[in-house]
Amino acid sequence: MKKNSQITNKNNHLIKFYFRLLFTILILLVFLPQAKASFNIFQESNYIQISGVINTPDGEPAVAQNVELLNSDNEIVASDITSEDGEYTVSYVPVSTYPERDKEGISEFKLGDAYPNPAGISSRSAGAQTHMPIRVIDEGNYQIEIYSVDGRLVSRSNYNLSQGAHTLSVGLPRASGVYIVRVKSNNVNEVQSIISLGGMGVSIDVRSGAMIPQQYADDLTSDPLITDQEVYTLKVYGGEDYLDYSAEFNQLDSYEHDISLEYRIPRYNLQTEAIPKEGGIIEPLSGTFKEGEEVSLTATPSKEWSFERWEGDLVGTENPATIEIDGDISVKAFFSQRNDDSVNILLDTDMATDSDDSAALYLLMNLVDAGECNLKAVMVNNKGEYSAGAVEAMLYHHGLTHVPVGAYKGDDVGIDAMQSYQEIAQDTQEYGHNRVTRDQFPDAVDVYRQTLASLPSDQENVVVSIGHLNNIYYLLESEPDEHSDLNGLDLVIEKVSRFEIMGGEYPRGTEHNFRERGAGAYTRDVIHNIRDNTDIELRLVGFSLGEKIRTGAGYDILPETHPLHRALVGKLGSITDHDSFDSVSAFSAVRGAQNRGYYFNWVRGTLTVGSSGYSSFSEDPEGDHYYAEIHQAGQGPTVEELSDLIEELQLGNF
Known about the structure:
By secondary structure, the protein is of the alpha/beta class.
């Protein structure tokens, strides 16, 4: 029985021995690779990690962008694809390599497959210690830490390991096994190594940022082992839309690196605006487009509104219209409220030295509000710098910001606007307009052609001239353009129903608008061209009629900043009645068309004008020309009644 017991014990010892041997082999085969795989648990400065957010040029996350990290040999060592939030992370643990001979210094060291396993024979004592000789070669203070493969700290030296020889006694759970040794210093980067410790220990040399097993130190003295000294390149591949991006990193570290991509083909902003807002919509409303891309714009009017024209970087009346993107684009679509039974008015004014021009404009704008007419455009026939600016200020003041304004570009007709008009034009803060001087406005003939081309031929389209006729002269002489294939005369014949003209004296005489400041020859040529080449109706208001009808005293109810108030005070020095030449023509164009024989007596015939602007009217029952007279007593409104009515319309009182 005793012999059998000894045999049994011997067998038990053999079983334990083989079990320990098998356990050690399993540790080396299993935990060593795992320890290497867990290497970056502790390696804070011996790897490179770059992370951040990639955005498009518009500030939105760049989704599904390929990100790569390349080494100095242009080899991909890490990659990622950006998330829905544009986030990416690439990380890489470099592998140590032997440098060329004669290179000085040791940077970092990772024990790899090139070194034999330094493990000795395992101690059979469970509490055995491993004694690790340490030789510190370079000056500095070092600390040694030893971790188990699961990241548990099992031993640490003091921080006062200075230059010289030291021994670290390490009490480990078992004397043999796989551990991670980490060297920390206050003057070099942290380094670490995976080693296998045996009962007899392993000797380690410590240099600047390195640790070397003692038994291999002699072989490395002249040919030191260094780790990564490479330059890493972060690349983002932009694809068709964006430029590729790259950045270099030459230190092993953790980086936060956000990126804003750039477009491969430049992008530009398209901004559109409907004027007025309630008039309609534009598609597309706005957006970012590639350079060279052609964008189709469509203006869709609201109910009871009509599309008029494009302005800005797109000019014309074509709808839809195409524009090529060559920079930031701004386009405005102008709409007008449609009243198919209302007369369409194109006003041609000098807006120069008389307050009556502003009164006529406000009369028409108030009739627009009443639904009696549509103000399609205003042209200025005077060379004054501020005349067009004053017109636009009044349009903005009244809310008709969509009405286009054109300016005469010549210097032969007209005079500088009176001071009150200049002040109105310059007061952009009060009235909200932007353009002040005539150089900021398009040519009046271009506005004429664009507006006429957009009007239906079967509607009543009336040109109201309350100044000189130079704009109309150049309109009649104009050539086909982008607005119309018709020349000026044919365009007028096609679109204009009649002309309402304030000028001349009837049945014969002379007057300012027809003769003064270079206007005479223009007046003659326009009247005769219309007379001889068309059957368009001319309705004429002469000087003597306008002189009789007086308005303005009622302006005292207006604020002092109102353009009507400012213009009248600027002309006369106070609020009082004034001649109403221009307002009578504007009134006739709208109310006279509705009640042709009620307000005035119209004398029919043919007008002839001399080169000096002298007018001579011959009565003719077949003629296309008419001039207005006050009715005889009892046959129509009196002068006083007409004056009161026109003033109420100027003020907007219906």
